[in-house]
Amino acid sequence: MTEIKESQLHIPEGINFDCTGCGNCCFEWPVPATRDDFERISGYAEERGFDNKQLFRVLNVADEKLRVFSHSLEKRDDGLCAFLTADKRCSIHNDFGAEAKPAMCRLFPYTFTDTPSGTFASVSFAASGVLFNTGKPLAEQVSLLESRFALFKQLFPGLSLDWSEAQLIDGQPLAWKDYIGDEELILEKLEKLEPEARVEKSLLEEAERFRKRAVGAKLDNIAALTVNPKIIDQVLIRNLLILYFPDNVYNSGVCELDAQSVAREFLSEPKKVSFKHRGNEYGLQDLLSIRLGRLPRESADLLRRFAYLRIFSKLYFGPGFNYLSVIAGMHHLAVLVSLLRIRLKLELLYRKISQPTDADCLSILAEDTRTLERRLTVSSFGQESIAMLEILLLSPQRVDRVLSIAG
User: Fold this and answer.
1) H or E element that contains 31
2) What is the pLDDT of residues 319-328, one digit of tens each?
């Protein structure tokens, strides 16, 4: 890990990024704009004959942490940014330079997580350059990261994460100093992981570091519940697939899990659980009929980097992700990687591909990882959902069974 002591900005090793010009970040979702953005870009838009009333929407932001944004830059009817050229380049960038773009466009795909140990820089897998790890190492982009971090602080001056209530499991607090040492060991293992190893198995193994501290906790029992555990596994997988991989990620709104609906479903003890994909339904035996085993090197490395950065940037537990406990969060992360493998299986079943090429695997996993990143960014779980995930995901046996289905 590269550390800049002056600013306490931590930068991950082995992660590369340069913009590929794919245009994927200029699609569908509106871009929050500051007053300066609005005034600057409005003038440019008028020169080009754009209608500012169609380009911009006034924001009335109730959230104090978002008060710097006065407008949103809307997308055209075809879902593209009005300033995107035919070759998917930003015309504002082309004509006036990178610093003329809206602040949020300049910030993307960089992310920053404030902790008691300093701020951890990361990047979003919604960007193609991040998905394929192209460009210069982040560790060699210190000046750029520091400038983006300064921009981040300008845009979110009131954003402060409170890690004092982090928990080992629900009801057992975990002090930051007790957490961070174990995390370093986990990150070191992920950095050195064999190229084709299954990262989700490593996550499950590394969660043992924390499970050993959960003294007296029964992580594998749900009191008074007689439902077949494997049915619960499948119902959980089905609902998480629907949650994280909707048919249209751009029109799906906030990512929230309906805990009562999930509970009713597995309590009804269905004889068979089906998984929908592109209008088709597949059963457990369909999934088990495909054995992925070790993925091709680039595909496996994509999943490794995804897991590594979620842990490095603390975006899997506590204030980093819906206040899940560390153990449930680590297990959730292992399940997320398994869901990506299950999605790969479903797509191969849909395409009737029995022997996928390396390119097949990478292209499918890349787009699903992009979708997953976008859904995680807008996730907002209520107390019931968190409580249910805490109960269901504390079990290493359950997570191991999910990993087997994804195998």
Assistant:
1) strand 31-34
2) 999 999 999 9
